[in-house]
## 1
Amino acid sequence: MKMSLVFLSAALLVMLSPALVCAGTIDSCLPAGVHSTDVVGVRVERGKGMTVTVAEKLKDLKARCRKHKLVDGRGKEIRFYQLVGCWGNPPDDYQQQLQRQASELAKLRRRYRVIELTCDPSGDQRMRAGPPTANP
């Protein structure tokens, strides 16, 4: 009885180890301040808005940790970018902030896979300010 319990425990450990090692490796590659539970957006499923976390996004991208860097399934390095724009009352320079953000994101996207971290923890993008619209 004891021997079969030890064998069963060892078998379970072997089966679970790759998943645990993989999850630990991904978490260890996340930059400071970014957590696997952080919200990156919302996905609509069956008419309901479901928040998407960093962990889910990384899974979708088939991310892995290679040489202490996070890369997607194609080997392109992943970078995180904290978005601005969840202002109740926007600051005076909000247009400049949004333009600077757009410029920085365009530059990063040329070289990296960019995951945008929403400024709204609910993941609701409707609350985020967008670039100013042109008047017709």
Note: The chain has three helices and six strands.
## 2
Amino acid sequence: MAAKKSESTSGKAAAAAAKVLKDPKASKDAKTAAASALTQSKSKEVTSAKAASAAAKVMRDPKASKSAKTAAASALTQKPGKKK
């Protein structure tokens, strides 16, 4: 049985995600992570493996904007844990 998701995207992270989605220079990975974070702002959705992978790439990218990293961190926080 999966654990209940207790995290949701904060207003600050949602604003950062919206900024990334509007940025024409943002990478595909940044936009994927931002979309995942924004989707979770008012729902019980969790981050998919694809979105988590994209978010991890954004976090490792030294050229990623602060907004992109904020959205990526939010998406990673909301990914489901590993089964034991």
Note: The mean pLDDT is 87.
## 3
Amino acid sequence: MRKKMLLGLIVVVAGCQAKDNSNESGDQISKRTRSMTRPGPFKDSPDSPDSPDSPDSLDAANESTTTGSVAVKFAAGAEGSPLSPRYSPPGKRLELKPINASESLGVDEVDGLEAEIALGWPIEKQKPIKLLVTRPAAGEAYNKLFIDNDGNGVFDEDAIVATASESRGNVWSNFSATVKATYLTDVAVTEDYPIALWIAVTSKAEQPEFIRMSRRGFKTGDLSIGGEKVQIVLSDSNNDAVFGEGDWWELRTVDNTVKGDGSRSIGDFHWFGESAYKLVLDDAIGNVGRLESFLPGKTREQDALDRDPYGADRKAVKADKPLEFRHDVDGAIAEAVAKQKRCFIKFETTWCGPCKTMTQYVFTAQEVVDASQDIVCVKVDGDERRDLVERFSIKAYPTGILLAADGTEASRFVGYQKVVDMSKFLLQKMTK
């Protein structure tokens, strides 16, 4: 029988910036029996105290098998903090519509474009926040951002100014701003919501159709587990300033000696040591929640294996030599047509993570190398060959295109492909 580790969990303080050296404990841990209405492999009755699958209790003085929970308070994390998440959700696309910038601002600004974003809870009752971008002159990049934070139809006088830069074949204008999110609870609450916004166009003279927005901020709550100070990092996953199921959370020690499992969705569990915990939020603002012990029904080692998206690809038998790619697309297509062979074109970039992972695990697998026999393979850097990106209508990376023996497109994939899927893609029968 596995010997239980007794873990004490007490609230220490809320917020990343605050420090409290007192020994004052937080709320007393409440105990509740498992409920089949909550997510997870819970059972109808508590486990036997002797069961090796019983969870370590959140209460150091309690060895029962009931689920323990403790209240957690969250506060805004400090900008630049090492706890700041190293990931952000995909940018939300905000449509830009032309308006008279001079009339809106009362100043001489050129080519005004307006967008709107709704933030807070409930999202359908929020009054949109208006954004306005302008440029100094026709033909120049859009470099000023004005915000109507008060929702009164008047934009803030001070503009956020960006310096346009060129990268990956586009001209970028990046802005950092803080807007207001409103929560219509019993008493309306307004909170700061730090965001990043950016415009990407192929040339400075181009008028963009949209601006993208993504959250910058995050929240933290401080706890102690088994005598170790830990922090929960909470962040928005879909840029709506509403915190709940599907948003992201992390659990790690304050000194970063234990960085935990990385980001997981609220509703999913985290490990600390060999014990598992879930975070339950009590409000849409993301300021109050509970950390609960959880029975995952598996060991931490097995859980890691189950979650590894590349596990099977890592273990795939490696070829003596990886799949060989040519670099001359037109020459490769011409050769394939002349020899009545199929042609596989792989579009990638130097900054594409999944592309690199496929190079490491998929195109080195014996199964994929074998499947590529009698196929002319060629790869393209999408940043270097914008002409081919347009010609083949490439929208994302990696993208793979399989041409029939007559040079016409027969099939394509977008996104990471596992070894087994890549083999099937290359071995598929042509209808042409």
Note: The helical segments are 101-105, 300-307, 311-315, 329-338, 353-362, 366-371, 386-391, 419-427.
## 4
Amino acid sequence: MLCCLKFYRTDHWLPVCFFSVVLLTGIAVHGDYGVCWDDPTQHNLGLVTWDYIFGKSDALLSNENCYINPIVAAVEVIPEKIFNPKGEALPNSMRHLSNFIICWAGLIIFYLLGLRLFIDYRFSLVVCLFFLLTPRLFAHCFYNSKDLPFLFLFVLSVYALIVWVQRPSWQAVVWIIICSGLLTATRVAGVFFPVIVLAASAYMALEKKLQWREAKMIASYFLLFPLSVYAFFPSIWHDPIHKIAQVMALYSHHPYDVTTYFMGETIHSLNTPWYYIPVWMAITIPVAWWLFSLAGIILCVYKILIKKNQLSVSWLVVILWLVVPLGSAMAFHVNTYEDGRHLYFVEPALLLIAVATLKKIYTTAFLSAIYAQIVKAITGALLIATIICQCIFIVQSHPYQYAYFNLIGRKYANDYFDKDYWGISYRNALEFLVKYDHQDTINVQWKVDPCEWNLIWLRENDRRRLHVVPYEQCDYYITNFRSHKPSDASSEKIYEVKVQGATIMAVYKMHPPNILFNVAP
């Protein structure tokens, strides 16, 4: 009986258990996250996209966000359309759950991609674990409906490409066309993928691995790719040529000017320094992941330049996935802000390189058995210690994992970088305030709009008690310190949320005159 169930095949049941635990965990905690900056706009975009697809309304065409993942936004309102929930809080939680399930499915694709690259399910599971134990990525899986679905669509597109690279077929080409079309229709940065396809094809041609049959497949891909983008991009259906030109112009010179607190200064997104993305990556990705990644990159360079070894096409795709978007962002000073979340989609490539280093350490014969044991012991100790520390942080800091900084960044986080730029912790601040003050009228002011949107979590009578008044007249001031160095608004701080010792949210009881410390709202 046990043999029939194949319990002895860990490669069968362990991945199933792993992804089942991830799914159940996500279902259990998805309702703990507050409303973020993008939630209202993405919700509205999903509704108008749904109505446009089914011919009920043309409101999508006048929506200012109509070019940012309309299909994903529409998918995430499907549960709302089916169950028609009452109120505002439940639909928000349902969208967070939908976003998580999309990411969970994407994580499975990431596992399958790992199998293609590592040919070993254990290392494929490790790379998925690395992803989940990168706290910012974990938290964003629940509410970031722009960057995380795009990240996993990039994973899906790379997976389809590597399937074709390893065994070229017309069926694989069709999947590449579909996946990359959906990717680019979700965000214009998807055009990096055809660049990767072109570079990989050129490399195959140089290595004489691209025969006439494969060349025809690549040519077909480039011919049909625009049609695939069109099919998944409802915002351009009515006028594709003009709208595509408009979209490219919009995102090559992104007009939105957003301020971010970066390295002790308030930075405008239209004028970010070239090192903006690398700095954010350096201080928010766990140090151990960086060490393994850098070791892998150095080893790769050594093999190519010194040993003159050939790089496999599959791993070339992974390296291009990391280098092309990141290099372009740095070279052209693209408009970006917050923690560089727009480039999150390159981080899976970094994690794949990190795990490739681990595999090299544990499966390669060293010159000395003693030397090999020492290297493996040090690597294992670092890996286990990091996994334990990351698990503890994710549990203890829930639901504020998005404010994570690694060992390098956390000592500078409080005074030099934005933390809760999403405004999600306003939910907890409001829930505290209505319990703290029992008066019928609570005069309050807050830093940014997400505080108002998080009122949906309060009972109706508590909402009526809160009155928004000018800053000079408020009894309480709530702030997430967005875009400036944290400083006290009054001498009486009655509530704060701290992550790794840095304050990401505070509620102040104000005293006349309210502006004691010259803090502008």
Note: The longest strand covers residues 492-499.
